[in-house]
Structures are given as C-alpha cells and as structure tokens.
C-alpha cells in the first residue's frame, strides 16, 4: 500500500458557484472537469446539495455523459438523492451531512448514530455497483460503524486539521494529524479504503498525502481559487506534484 500512487479527485462545485452568481451558463463545470481530466485528475467530485446552490441536476447528467474518469457523486442521504443516484449509477457516492445554513460540509456524518438507516440506505446503491463512501471524522466508533454497514470507503474529514494549520495552531494541527493517521490505520485494518479531504491547500497537503493508508484526496475550493491565478490545469499539476513528493 505504501508508495502506491495517491489519487487526486478534483471537486468542481465552485465552478458552478461562480456560474450561478450571475445566472449565466458559464463557467461550465463540465469544461472544468475535462480540463482537470487532461491535467491528470483521477476522478471528479461534485456535490449535489439539496438547495442546488452550486451543482445542479443537469450538471450531474452532463458530467456522467462527458467525462472519461470516475465521477464521485457527493450528497446527503435523502430519498431524493437516492433516486438520482440509481438513475445515473455513478462510479462512487460519498455521503455527507448537510445543513442548509452551513457554508460548506462542516462536520462528519454520524454513522454510529444512524447505523440502521444508513445500512438500508446504501444497500441499493451497492447493488447498483456504486462504491459507497462515508465522509466522517476520525473517531473510531464512526469508522467501525462504517465498516459494519458495508461501506467500501471512508473519507476522513481534514477540515479541522486545515483550519488549525491556517490559524498557525501547529501543535494542535499535529495532534489532529496524529488522530487522522490513527483513523486511517484503523479503517484500513477493517478493510475500508481510505480517502481524505476538505480544506486542503498547497501548504497543508503534504502530511495528509504522506499517510500511507490514504488512497485518494478530494480537493476543490483551493484549486478552483488557484485556477484564477494559474489556470486550472497548472493549479492541478502543482497539487499533483506536491502529493507525489509527499508520498516519496
Ligand atoms: N470531500 C468532501 C466530502 C467535501 O464535502 C468537500 C467539500 O465539498 C471536499 C472533499 C473538498 O473540500 P474543499 O473544497 O475544501 O477542498
């Protein structure tokens, strides 16, 4: 496992945020996804939120039809989303908690507290061939519950680590990293594939990329912002370079 090439999933939600700010047709998330693919992204992630604040249903249709790399369909575990997933059958589904008033996905999913419902929820998705991922914190009980319900993947929430790093609280960021490392080890020992993401940037990605059990990072907001300066392809290539360097 160690040394295996770490995959990069590029989240293109905020291309849609910019588009929707003017109610126009551009910038087009599909075009961004195709540029990401050409720049070496291993997958595309898009979050269809209940309020459709960025990605819309038509974007998901266009991504499914247009990209040549796997689509990771991020959503809340609602009946509405289940119906869309079963129609589209994306490669992967990442279940996240969602609150209307939040600016972004602020915490992890409470799998342990909602185990029976989530087990039932993911069964048809698994049967449809989707790799189901739970976006969770590093608490062992959430990881263990994800394994029990039959998820293939856990994505560990790196948002708290990223915030601590950005605030210069480096000792606390290190402690959070240690907990993420422990979580990744536990998850892999239970047979779960481990992903990580949220708030990752050029400056904070290396220690997360270096966790040997982590197989994929999902990165969005920073890359779309950086694309303003560098262009999307070069912004992704630089992230790729830093990930590979950290991986050794
Ligand atoms: N992974 C998940 C599950 C997310 O919800 C998000 C944000 O949509 C990301 C990764 C990417 O986070 P960011 O946009 O901060 O890079």
UniProtKB/TrEMBL annotation:
Instruction: Recite the UniProt keywords alphabetically.
Output: Cytoplasm, Pyridoxine biosynthesis, Transferase
Which InterPro entries does this one have?
Aldolase_TIM, PyrdxlP_synth_PdxJ, Pyridoxine-5'_phos_synth
Q: Which Pfam families match?
A: PdxJ
The positions annotated for binding 3-amino-2-oxopropyl phosphate are 11, 22, 199, 220-221
**Where found, per UniProt?**
Cytoplasm
Taxonomically, which superkingdom?
Bacteria
Q: Which Gene3D superfamilies match?
A: Aldolase class I (3.20.20.70)
User: Which residues does UniProt mark as catalytic?
Assistant: 47 (proton acceptor), 74 (proton acceptor), 198 (proton donor)
Site (Transition state stabilizer) found at 155
Q: List the pathway annotation.
A: Cofactor biosynthesis; pyridoxine 5'-phosphate biosynthesis; pyridoxine 5'-phosphate from D-erythrose 4-phosphate: step 5/5
UniProt-listed CDD domains: PNPsynthase (cd00003)
State a single Gene Ontology molecular function. pyridoxine 5'-phosphate synthase activity
Its Enzyme Commission number? 2.6.99.2
Q: Which residues bind 1-deoxy-D-xylulose 5-phosphate?
A: 13-14, 49, 54, 104
Provide a GO CC annotation, any one: cytosol
Query: NCBIfam families annotated for this entry?
Result: pdxJ, PRK05265.1-2, PRK05265.1-3, PRK05265.1-5
What family does the database annotate? Answer: Belongs to the PNP synthase family.
Cited function = Catalyzes the complicated ring closure reaction between the two acyclic compounds 1-deoxy-D-xylulose-5-phosphate (DXP) and 3-amino-2-oxopropyl phosphate (1-amino-acetone-3-phosphate or AAP) to form pyridoxine 5'-phosphate (PNP) and inorganic phosphate.
HAMAP family given for it? PdxJ (MF_00279)
What does the annotation say about its assembly with partners? Homooctamer; tetramer of dimers.
Supply the name of the protein.
Pyridoxine 5'-phosphate synthase
Which species is this record about?
A: Gemmobacter aquaticus
């Amino acid at each position: 496992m160690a040394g295996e090439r770490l995959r990069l999933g590029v989240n293109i939600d905020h291309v849609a945020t910019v588009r929707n700010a003017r109610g126009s047709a551009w910038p087009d998330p599909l075009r961004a996804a195709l540029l990401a693919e050409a720049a070496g992204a291993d997958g595309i992630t898009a979050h269809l939120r209940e309020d459709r604040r960025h990605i819309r249903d038509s974007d998901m249709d266009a991504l499914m039809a247009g990209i040549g790399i796997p689509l990771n369909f991020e959503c809340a575990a609602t009946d509405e989303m289940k119906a869309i997933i079963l129609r589209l059958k994306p490669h992967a589904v990442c279940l996240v908690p969602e609150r209307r008033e939040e600016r972004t996905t602020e915490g992890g999913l409470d799998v342990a507290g909602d185990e029976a419902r989530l087990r039932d929820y993911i069964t048809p998705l698994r049967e449809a061939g989707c790799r189901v991922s739970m976006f969770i914190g590093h608490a062992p009980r959430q990881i263990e519950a994800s394994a029990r319900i039959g998820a293939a993947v856990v994505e560990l929430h790196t948002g708290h680590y990223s915030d601590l790093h950005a605030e210069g609280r480096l000792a606390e960021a290190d402690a959070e990293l240690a907990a993420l490392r422990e979580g990744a080890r536990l998850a892999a020992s239970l047979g779960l594939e481990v992903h990580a993401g949220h708030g990752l940037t050029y400056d904070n990605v290396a220690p997360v990329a270096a966790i040997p059990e982590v197989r994929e990072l999902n990165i969005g907001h920073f890359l779309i912002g950086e694309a303003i300066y560098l262009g999307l392809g070069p912004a992704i290539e630089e992230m790729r370079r830093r990930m590979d360097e950290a991986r050794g």
